[in-house]
Design brief:
This protein is mainly α. The protein folds into 4 domains: about 5-100, Helix Hairpins, CATH 1.10.287.1080; about 100-130, no CATH class; about 150-215, Helix Hairpins (Orthogonal Bundle), CATH 1.10.287.1080; about 220-265. About 75% of the residues lie in helices and about 0% in strands. The protein has helices at about 5-20, 25-30, 35-55, 55-80, 85-100, 100-105, 115-130, 150-165, 170-190, 195-215, 220-245, 255-265. Helix 1 (about 5-20) crosses helix 4 (about 55-80). The protein is globular. The chain starts with 6 loop residues before the first helix and ends with a helix.
Length: about 270
Amino acid sequence: MASEFDASDFEALLATIHTLRQPGGCPWDRKQTLTDAARYLMDEAGELVDAALSGDAEHVREELADLLFMTCFCCEILGETEGVSMLDIARQGNAKLIRRHPHVFGDAQAHEVGTSQKLWNEIKAQEKRDRGLDPDAASVLKEMPASTAPLHLAYRWQQDAAGVGFDWPEIGGVKAKLQEELDELDEAVAADDHDAIEHELGDVLFSLVNLARWHHVQPDMALRKANRRFADRFQLVEEQFRREGRDMGAAALDELEAAWQAAKRQLSGD
């Protein structure tokens, strides 16, 4: 059961952050710039994703607290030069949510995800026009931070392109394109051309992301989960060899494979 919201708790967090930034506060916190804090916020967001994937509710709470702290910390730094408060940020965010959800807070109708997304995009375009910008002059490929994970960037841009009809009509075309890229990679490997291998591997990865998109799978999340499965299984293999007092590096490949399969069985359901 979630506890009742007490504004004093949030105000206490803001007061603590303010104290950390003041003369006599923490030297490390005082030296951070907005850019520094934004980078740490991005790190905390990644840790929250990992916690959510683990299914550990307590870990998720801890990472949410860290993420909230960094958000408020960024606002504190911005406020030192721009006079912006966390209340201003909250007010602006709330107004945007209400404005972009006329099907919830207004008279518009949207009973499907596609319709609500269309409304959202139309309102975003109108907001640009209100600022004197031409939404039609910009690329449909959304601008993303340079720090965006490449798998996610590929997914987003493919999604943007598909939104204007630049897409395969059916998944068979996606699979055929992936096989075409794999064949070209084989040719690059046969020619022992490093630059071509890098080029074709990039195309293979890009095509795999497109396949993930067609199956409504976030490729970066799928890879995170695969990484976690690999680590869990590999560490069990390491543990087995330590328990037996054996050097894993000296084991034959069939022994390693047997240990790996045993670890997979032990972690059944992964």
